[in-house]
Amino acid sequence: MPSIEAGSPFLQKACQLQGELTAWRRDFHRHPELGFEEERTAAIVADHLESLGLEVKRGVGKTGVVGLLRGKEPGPCIGIRADMDALPIQDQKEIAYRSTIPGKAHVCGHDAHTSILMGTAQFLSQQAKIARGSVKFIFQPAEEGLGGAEVMIQDGVLQDPPVDAIIGLHVNTTIPTGRITLVKGVGCAAADEILIRIIGKGGHAAQPHQAVDSVSVTAEVLSALQHIVSRQMDPLESAVITIGKIQGGAAGNIIAPDVNMIGTVRTLNPLVREQMPERIEQVIKGVTTALGADYEFTYNKGYPSIVNDGVMVDRMKHTATRVLGSDRYEMVKPTMGGEDFSYFTQQVPGVFFRLGVRNEAKQCTYPGHHPMFNLDEAALPIGVALFSQFVHDYLNQEEDLS
Fold first, then answer.
1. Do 111 and 141 sit in the same domain of this protein?
2. Which of 133, 168, 233, 372 is the most exposed place for a label (fewest CB within 10 A)?
3. Is residue 129 part of a domain?
4. Catalytic site residue 143?
5. Can you say which residues are annotated as belonging to the binding site for Mn(2+)?
């Protein structure tokens, strides 16, 4: 972590919020709520924003909260987004603030995102001087697969006043505390879902010739699907086809009449994404026809790719240099993970960056969605400082991006 003494004034002031940020984050960690169930979290957020004197709207996109801070003069509006939902995973950490709700846990860091944005609202309303324009603090529900960003947009979150640009972050335990990573252009994959049912003919395991073994057909389909990426695609393009769940069969001596599979398809190039449904179905149809089986296939489009605006990325590099130093950010390749911040970047220029929270001494090394996931809370004020500096410079039109 960068020295506080050597840090920017914004970072020094943000570090004064360490106690509050940690308390908020641990409280949310103890009381996780799944997508569109974030009633307690939303109430705490809304009450906090109202205590700061902000204009607050509750129930935006079902359980979302929006706070608006107006500057002294008219000007552009910048949005800052944090997601609030937890995951349906059992928390396995032995810590004082572990989840108190069985089967639910903040093991992706959204509790930190929410706390950082609460701290940013406090910082910008009390410490920074917003000369012009406005800041919209967007506390979003249901990022984990339910598309809460899209629901908030449909509910008018980018209007009244219109949002001109937006920023967001995600904590990451592969990046050391005190550093961030950025991607220019496409920042993450489009994340789609596939549902496949292989339909065979049940029978006795000792008489396979009188049946159509859906399990063995499924094995052939699984193998053939990987040829799409390895042999049908341009090697310079990126794609992932993963089958994560298979269900079929009742006993070892029974040939299963059918098998159900659920998987995900990840792509970066929109043209490759458009080709995937047809390519996948061709493979399934070819294998099942050859082996005497049938199939059902559904392709559900999920989150699109985040597209980081070039100018906004340059602004964030400038911000990182001011707050952390010129050697504290890194330009990296896109990730094949999905993120519904992408719905915002479809509407307005935006930038989404990764905030380092890795600290081996504190055992903050497990990846997101792991039941042992935890993060270095020393990164919380860094997130506040980065958000606040970016917004301050953007609204006060400090154009020097050197």
1. yes
2. 372
3. yes
4. yes
5. 108, 110, 144, 170, 369
Q: Which residues of the chain have pLDDT under 50?
A: 1-5, 399-402
What is the CA angle 82-83-87, rounded to 5?
Answer: 150
The answer to whether residues 177 and 211 belong to one domain is no
Q: How many CB atoms lie within 10 A of CB 346?
A: 15
Catalytic residue among 33, 143, 150, 164: 143
d(CA 272, CA 276): 6
Q: Same domain, yes or no, for 239 and 340?
A: no
How far, CA to CA in Å, does 348 sit from each of 12, 46, 79, 307, 311? 31, 25, 10, 10, 12
> What is this structure's pTM?
0.92
- Asked if 52 and 156 sit in the same domain, the reply is yes
| Angle, in degrees to the nearest 10, between helices 18-30 and 380-395 | 110
* 402 occurs within a structural domain: no
Q: Which of 303, 336, 368 is the last residue of a domain?
A: 303
> Taking the chain, what is the end-to-end CA distance rounded to the nearest angstrom?
23
The secondary structure element, H or E, covering residue 78 is: strand 73-83
